[in-house]
């Protein structure tokens, strides 16, 4: 729905409201014309039903208004003496059209001084729950959203099990795109595991779907800061599909932007940057990217020992994930059928290291039966270990270690932009340009793979190639001007992160917010009271120096607040 369509829809609703209530306005001592004036009619209606004027604002907040409209329909009926359960049911089930019956058929009288107190305990309970949901939805949508770290892509900086508060107002809160959705949940309803929103996610039918006509246009409230290079950012995963979480979807299936899965990464490239990755390290505008001192980059390092590895060495020195090396005959490894076989049912995850005429050295995971089947020989003194630079240096000083060398990945097909001519790997990549709103680039078939998804998916143009010509919206294009800003998001756990190197740029309209506080941290691998990482509770996400926990000050403030509340209640009761 465009802004023009939204305005037309809004005006139609105002006409319907006026036709359904103008006589009720007169009976309440107001003028008939007041029922037809947009926004003003809502302010007047709040006076009629004896509710505060600011309820009008709630009627214009997406998602929140889905709760408020039924409340207003019921309150309108009760203001004219219709208090029965049947009246309440009819007001809600008829979607407010019960007002037409009250306006033209029923003989009703306005009750100016009606009691606003619920008539039963159930009514009181429902009222409390509804307004708790309204308040929580406003906070969740426009101010602060809770988020939990699900993967290790920022490991050592943010840990699996960290519970974050994500600020919506730093970069500006987005209004929801999906107008018909349940509050307080994301893309699915817990337990039943069904969609929490109404839409048609199939691209072949979605443009004609009535449900998708209810989508609201993109709008973001002003923020008070821009995304800075190296900020940690929560965003909607641009290529999300509920069909397969780990595969980049084609043009057949897509979710609304605000219902795509939430990801958290570091913005290592911002609009206007020229960015490249060399041997795993990021270079922006020709200079090596300097990360904040709290950031802990990890790579896989190849650790070679002087003797065969034993369990004691692993227990004493390896405290993180590692993979074994194997030798395999090139005639097996270079056969595409083997790769298809390994990919089927996740039978193996292997990457090529070194090779000679007799053997290919591969590293990763493989099932024992497949290892025997393809005559793979384990290397007993060599493993790949996920380490920080400091941990790698410490291992080099171990007398049992012969060498510790950073592992560099070979070019792979699953690296962006997934096109011939781009022989890139996750360790050696680019250079690329990070698009900036309003900037124009020269467009040709060589660079088109980099910007194809931006042009067609994120900026809603039709794109096709005929011969050597690129057509955008049916016209030959030799240049393209970007409509919004884009970012390059990567994890600090460089060899264990699915990030922009796999799926490309992140549009600004996908940005959710800025994580500001770790309020809880839960270690599933620990036991008892140690499951809580106490030193991480109430620590800030950004900043420099060692993170400081504000748990004690928070507990003191809670205790003071509780004590003051008890004191005030006791004083009232005297």
UniProtKB/TrEMBL annotation:
UniProt keyword annotations, A-Z: Hydrolase, Membrane, Protease, Transmembrane, Transmembrane helix
Organism placement in taxonomy: Bacteria, Pseudomonadati, Bacteroidota, Flavobacteriia, Flavobacteriales
The family this protein is said to belong to: Belongs to the peptidase S26 family.
InterPro entries listed in its UniProt record: DUF5684, LexA/Signal_pep-like_sf, Pept_S26A_signal_pept_1, Pept_S26A_signal_pept_1_Lys-AS, Peptidase_S26
Reactions mediated catalytically: Cleavage of hydrophobic, N-terminal signal or leader sequences from secreted and periplasmic proteins
Name of the protein described by the UniProt record: Signal peptidase I
Gene Ontology molecular function: serine-type endopeptidase activity; signal peptidase activity
PANTHER family per the UniProt record, alphabetical: CHLOROPLAST PROCESSING PEPTIDASE (PTHR43390:SF1), SIGNAL PEPTIDASE I (PTHR43390)
Cell location: Membrane
Span of domain Peptidase S26: 124-294, 479-519
Membrane topology category: Single-pass type II membrane protein
Recorded GO CC terms: membrane
Catalytic center residues: 153, 265
Organism: Bizionia paragorgiae
Keyword set includes Amino-acid biosynthesis: no
UniProt main location, coarse: membrane
């Amino acid at each position: 729905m465009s802004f023009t369509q939204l305005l037309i829809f809004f005006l139609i609703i105002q006409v319907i409201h006026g036709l359904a209530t103008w006589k009720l306005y007169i009976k309440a001592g107001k003028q008939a014309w007041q029922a037809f004036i947009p926004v003003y009619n809502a302010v007047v209606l709040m006076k009629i039903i004896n509710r505060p004027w600011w309820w009008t604002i709630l009627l214009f907040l997406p998602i929140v208004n889905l709760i408020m409209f039924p409340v207003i329909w019921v309150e309108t009926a009760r203001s004219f003496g219709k208090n029965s359960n049947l009246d309440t049911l009819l007001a809600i089930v008829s979607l407010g059209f019960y007002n037409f019956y009250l306006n033209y058929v029923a003989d009703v009288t306005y009750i100016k001084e009606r009691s606003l107190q619920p008539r039963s305990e159930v009514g009181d309970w429902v009222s409390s729950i509804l307004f708790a949901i309204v308040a929580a939805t406003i906070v969740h949508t426009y101010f602060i959203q809770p988020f939990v770290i699900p993967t290790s892509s920022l490991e050592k900086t943010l840990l699996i099990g960290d519970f974050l508060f994500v600020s919506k107002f730093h970069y500006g809160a987005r209004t929801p795109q999906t107008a018909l959705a349940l509050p307080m949940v994301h893309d699915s309803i817990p337990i039943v595991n069904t969609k929490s929103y109404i839409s048609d996610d199939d691209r072949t039918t979605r443009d004609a779907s009535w449900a998708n006509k209810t989508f609201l246009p993109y709008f973001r409230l002003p923020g008070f800061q821009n995304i800075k290079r190296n900020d940690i950012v929560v965003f909607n995963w641009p290529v999300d599909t509920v069909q397969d979480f780990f595969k980049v979807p084609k043009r057949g299936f897509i979710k609304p932007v605000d219902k795509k899965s939430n990801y958290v990464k570091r913005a290592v490239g911002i609009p206007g940057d020229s960015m490249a990755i060399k041997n795993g390290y990021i270079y922006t505008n020709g200079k090596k990217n300097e990360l904040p001192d709290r950031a802990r980059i990890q790579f896989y390092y190849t650790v070679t020992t002087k003797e065969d590895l034993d369990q004691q060495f692993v227990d004493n020195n390896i405290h993180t994930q590692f993979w074994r090396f194997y030798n395999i005959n090139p005639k097996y490894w270079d056969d595409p059928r083997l790769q298809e076989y390994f990919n089927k049912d996740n039978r193996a995850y292997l990457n090529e290291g070194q090779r000679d005429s007799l053997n290919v050295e591969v590293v990763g995971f493989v099932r024992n039966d497949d290892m025997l089947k393809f005559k793979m020989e384990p290397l007993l003194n060599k493993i790949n270990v996920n380490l920080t630079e400091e941990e790698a240096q410490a291992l080099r000083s171990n007398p049992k270690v012969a060498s510790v060398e950073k592992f560099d990945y070979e070019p792979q097909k699953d690296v962006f932009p997934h096109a011939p001519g781009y022989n890139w790997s996750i360790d050696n990549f680019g250079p690329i340009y990070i698009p900036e709103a309003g900037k124009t680039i020269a467009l040709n078939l060589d660079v088109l793979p980099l910007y194809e998804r931006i042009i067609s998916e994120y900026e809603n143009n039709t794109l096709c190639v005929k011969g050597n010509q690129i057509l955008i919206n049916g016209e030959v294009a030799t240049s393209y001007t970007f409509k919004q800003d884009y970012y390059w998001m990567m994890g600090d756990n460089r060899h264990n992160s699915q990030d922009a190197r796999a799926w490309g740029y992140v549009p600004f309209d996908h940005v959710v917010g800025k994580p500001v506080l770790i309020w809880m941290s839960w270690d599933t691998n620990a036991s008892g009271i140690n499951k809580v990482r106490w030193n991480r509770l109430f620590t800030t996400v950004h900043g420099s120096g060692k993170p400081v926990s504000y748990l004690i000050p928070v507990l003191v403030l809670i205790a003071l607040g509780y004590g003051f509340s008890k004191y005030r209640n006791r004083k009232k009761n005297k």
